[in-house]
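Table S2 (text version). Query chain:
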Amino acid sequence: MEVLKGSSTTKSTTHAPPLHTLEFSRLKFFNRVFATVYTCAILALLYHHALTLLNSTTLSSFFITLSLLISDIVLAFMWVATQSCRLNPIHRKEFPENLKRVVKESDFPELDVFICTADPYKEPPMGVVNTALSVLAYDYPTEKISVYVSDDGGSQLTLFAFMEAAKFASHWLPFCRKNNIVERNPEAYFASNNSWSSEAEKIKTMYHSMKIKVENVVKRGKVGDEYIIGEEEQKAFNKWKDSFTRQDHPTVIQVLLQNSKDKDIIGHLMPNLIYVCRQKSRTSPHHFKAGALNVLLRVSATMTNAPIILTLDCDMYSNDPSTPLRALCYLFNPQDQSKFGFIQFPQIFNGINKNDIYACEFKRLFQINPVGFDGLNGGNYVGTGCFFSRRAFFGGPSKLVSPEIPELGPYNVVDKPIQSQPIMELAYKVAGCNYENQTKWGYEMGVRYGSLVEDYFTSYRLHCEGWKSIFCNPKRPAFLGDAPNTLIDMLNQHKRWAIGLFEVVFSKFSPLTFGIRSMGLPMSLAYAHLGCWAIWSIPVTIYAFLPQLALINGISIFPKVSEPWFLFYVFLFLGAYGQDFQDFILFGGTVERWWNDQRIWMIKGLTCYLFGFMEFFLKFLGISTHGFNVTSKVIDDEQHKRYEQGMYEFGVPSPMFVPLVTAAIINLLSFFWGLERAFRGSKLEGLFVQMFITGFVVVNSWPIYEAIVLRSDKGKIPIRTTLISIFLAWGLVAAASLTLRS
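Corresponding structure-token output:
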């Protein structure tokens, strides 16, 4: 085991205690040997396909072999790409308890926190408030923390919630410090089964009073006059006039807490808390979340310009008050400081049911693959829970890209109060919807435009520019968030991701061209594996229909059990699934969750990846498609009950369910056809692989059959979807009978 130690030179000591260590994975050597052997097997299989293709004697056999060749090339590419994450996985450990022995607290850098929300009905304001309170209460010098809340929905409901939160924070922050509370999200803290002191009961009563008030306002849809206290609050809400809509409104910036004057109930200064609603116009592009983050970058530069920035989704709250200190364990390492770009913490979710039926844990994306990324050039940015160096948004480590005005530069020192007239005027100016015109924002500076997945694209571009990053995965999750609890929400989210990833892959910044030149092959393949999610739909769709339709027509398309090539299929199947299972279990997964993860991978291949693939190319051809949709964080009681019982939610009509149900029907028909032939004494040696694939799909399709036949609740598959799927299945079987037997 090799261990690297980092420490600061702020205090001159001969033997400074370590701030972090690094350990290489023990699986590194095994992974490389297995990759070599498995690659040889892949090449042999592709050779077999090519040979069969050349020897095809009929059009149908040529089509079948070509389809299998294409699907196996895609599977081979995706497997090879993911091996880059297994070449050099590393595990890190931090020692925040050593930090104050190495550097003075007064030398800690200032921290700007960005929290983004966009819809008070899909992202309830109380959830956003709890996220903000959890970071306002960090174990960090309060005068060095500034929290900026971007309200891209332009809702007075969100502003009202944060006005109430600012008042509650004056009680909550000293309570957390006095009692050394670890769970600093009030909702999560009061939901735990603790025995409360009289002080805690008092704080709990205050919190629930605030919650009821905010939820009543949200229910009414407006802030009534009875809730507005004082002239300043009235002035703020007067900006919401009849012409104020979420797509067309002026800038609203409200300083709710100012660390130079606002104090908590025991006299300590509070952190800064600033509400930002950027200007929007129907005639100006706003670039979704990327645009909102760039506005926060500029507004925060005018007010505080902290050298460190933490980005958070509105539902991803802090679960550990010492998290900034963990980030500092790397920031104060002189070996990494010059090229440090960002430190990414994993997304960990609560509220997932026992066996994670929708695979919303995203273990590969947020825990397994980042360890491999970290061993190459650093973990990738996943949109939340990430500490950035502000400097990283302004060009590469050796080339500073200067903004259009010096006040926005990463090294500018703000020497005026944040509510002073010059500061506020500049903040309003840089939050304007036309401010970015004729500037480098979104293209050479800031969060990058050009993709629906701004986190992936920005991370990729920063690595291409030469920045390094770190994946930090402490035992206690640094952040906890909410995952989609319905199937359609999960599929819509992944469809959006698939489209956004393709936007990068098919741009001039493609990982397969620009990336290889900028970062080298391994890191580029790691990004390409993520970027090409949508092409999983090709092999999944082919293997969901072609072997089954051939089986119904008695046509063998795979080697017989007695043939040597059959062993290649066995090895490739068991090798891929075995390695994936090993990774999943080693990172704390269970057998049941792994199985559901495999099932959801197949479901996504026939739904969100397939539709994302088609929607991207329609958009590529200039055909209008749907825009960005916020994933709902709200779920009704009946849906929640079904989710906790492990029942899939199909109740919302969606065209994405049609190919899924059609595949389930065809696989069931072909499987029973094969069994019927076996009972009649027919030899199925040549059809064994097809029977196995069909049976594998049938077993994984049980939730679909259950939702068609056995369920009567609102989560069952709609009758219309079932009828359309039966019609399509009948049409495919009829067409295959005419085509494959000709």
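Notes on Table S2: The radius of gyration is 28 Å. The first strand starts at residue 20 and ends at 24.
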